[in-house]
Amino acid sequence: MYRIIYLSTAARQITPEDLExxxxxxxxxxxxxxxTGLLMxxxxxxxQFLEGEQAAVMACVKRIEAxxxxxxxxxxxxGEVDQRLFAEWSMAFARPATTLPNAPGVRAFDAVRAxxxxxxxxxxxxxxxxxxxxxxxxxxx
Length: 141
Description:
- The relative contact order is 0.23.
- It is built from four helices and six strands, in the order E-H-E-E-H-E-E-E-H-H.
- The chain is globular.
- A six-stranded mixed sheet has the order 4-1-3-2-5-6, with helices on both faces.
- The protein has helices spanning 16-33, 54-66, 109-122, 124-135; strands at 2-10, 36-42, 45-52, 70-80, 92-95, 106-108.
């Protein structure tokens, strides 16, 4: 099992339609490729966790890095892990409030925050990254 964690900034203002498109494409592609994960978004910043077979995850990251919607992509962690943390999610998407009515898999930050004890038992680094992402914004810290 392989996991990559990255941060990025949107190259332009992201609309709700953009977010719906990102999520639907990610869910389709990730289900096909056996990738699971979590994408968090707030104030035009992304934090994403991708996990699966290394070749599939690396191919996904290459597609993301080629997407002009992102800039300043910074890989925070890449490596082998013992288990999936997001096994039930082909791609979950989290934002401060669930304001994408037609997008399955959307969770509010509060829902992700409630899962932090389970996430921390699986991988403390991931829980720390999520907490740091929350704390970097005054309105969700």
